[in-house]
Amino acid sequence: MGNKEAYIPGMIQKLGDGKKAPQIFCLEQAVVLKSTPQVKTENLRQSRRCQNQFLNHERYTYFNICPKCSGRGKKNYKLRKKSRLRFQIALDEFEKARGEGRALVRPKVTQYLCNHCSGSGLLPASCSPLPNSEIYPHIAIIGAGIGGVALAVACLHRGIPFTLYERDKSFNARAQGYGLTLQQASNAVKGLGLFSLQDGCHSTRHVVHTTEGKEISEWGLRTHLNSNKTPKRKNVHIPRQALRLALMEQLGAPSDVQWGHRLVGLKQCEDKGVELSFQVNKEIKRVKADLVVGADGIRSIVRSLLIGEDVTPLRCLGYVVILGICSLQALEGVESSLLDLTTVFQTVNGHERIYVMPYSSDAVMWQLSLPMSEEEAKALSARGAEALKEEACRRIKWHTPIPQILSATLPAQISGYPIYDRELLKAELLEKAGPVTLIGDAAHPMSPFKGQGANQALLDALALARQISIACRALPKWRETGLRESVLTEFEEEMLARSASKVQDSAKAVELLHSEKVLREGYGPKGRFL
Asked: Helix, strand or coil for residue 365?
């Protein structure tokens, strides 16, 4: 452990008689104390000192995993003796009955955030750990979008050797989306070494209007009833490229990212590895890896090569989105409380919908969505940004400040495309995939109307890196048993179960947000569709 991580104290303090005080667990800002009255005050002070020191992690560039929780950010409470005995008795009876009757369910283990790392799984270090190819597999990550770069960073922190391949020639070769909203992943990014997002904006209010500007629904932490209260939690809005760059900056070695590599083939080798073929400057380059992770988006080449495009083809949802970024400077003179950069608002008419959110400290992002066939949407997109802006301005003549935002947006900041998703990926399709898996949109693409795509990709990346780290250290003979059995099966089951509801809810939201139901007054985020 480097010198810089040694300054974070443990959470168990010694009393005057040499005994250890009961432990104290930090649950982010809330603290659950297991202490006697005599030491509770001192433990609380120590907890706060530890948290304050940990909040200064943004000063550091390098991180290692926390040894107390093995980088998971959480620990397990031990099962009570009564629960263990009850389960053992039931297991014995089940075995005597030769497996007949109701299947047993293991007692659920309660978890708590690790107090040593405040739940991030990381501690600051003087340098990144060296890649350990003796313990860990070498990973080929295909795609340097949000999910791929996040996985690379998580592997870097754990000493897992990797190479990141990207078909683009450079970081800025093409646009990587507009803005995104960090919801569940606002805490997960701390596990990737991002303890403060300088380019992020926070929203505390979400409001829905009719086209005339009548407010029909409002929710969030800052409403008319609680506007004087301090927010407990906020969504974080950040440009996709800003988040991608913040992650990419942690990858110091240029060789970790191979730009201009377009995957054209992969095949499993007899030694349980995988050979990958890339097209690089019109030549074919072949490399080997122990594990391949497809993080190459909704039109994933890895997925196509692995299970075929016809098994779960892209599914057009019958809608088009037109997106734009508008500078607040271009809106000078427009008076509206909706432009305070802490409010997210949408306006609906039961057919079309526009959604506006903070994008940066000096701009907002808007998304117009409406029913349109795939052919029409492709044709409109092919006509270019001017045609997309003209279509948006022609259709949307609604309340202030919407027309002003559309008019002031530069064509260079506008794009549009049809919306797609896929049927849920079944775990059986990956059972014979060997040491190859998928994360993010490559595994579970979804519509943008729940804002979950990037969130799930970040969670996937962190979960996979943690699983590799823990499983391969516990089972060093993974080369014999295979990575699918030791790592991937458990990871994929968790990933697919977690993301399934997000994919389904995102598909339902498409219909809901463009129907008469959305016009009902008081219809807040019921069912979490808005």
From this structure: strand
- CA dist., res. 139 & res. 162, Å (int): 4
**For the segment 327-386, what is each residue's pLDDT rounded down to a tens digit?**
999 999 999 999 999 999 999 999 999 999 999 999 999 999 999 999 999 999 999 999
Give the model confidence (pLDDT) of 156-203 as tens digits: 999 999 999 999 999 888 766 689 998 877 888 999 999 888 888 888
Side chain identity at 367, as an amino acid letter? Q
489 contacts 94 by C-beta, under 8 angstroms: no
What CA–CA distance (Å, rounded) separates 2 from 180?
A: 35
Q: Which amino acid is at 453?
A: G
From CA 494, how far away is CA 488, in angstroms rounded?
10
CA atoms within 13 Å, Cβ hemisphere of 97: 12
Sign of the CA dihedral running 194, 196, 198, 200: positive
Please, which residues have CB within 8 angstroms of residue 390's CB and are 6 or more apart in sequence?
none
Q: Which of 489, 484, 471 is nearest to 434 (CA)?
A: 484
CA diameter of the chain: 80
Are 419 and 384 within 8 A, CB to CB? no
Cis peptide bond N-terminal to 37, omega within 30: no
Label the pairing between strands 215-219 and 205-209.
antiparallel
The whole-model pTM stands at: 0.82
Confidence grade of residue 253 (pLDDT, cut at 50, 70, 90): low
pLDDT of the residue at 35: 36
264 membership: H or E segment, kind and range: strand 262-268
Amino acid letter, 400? T
Mean pLDDT across the chain: 83
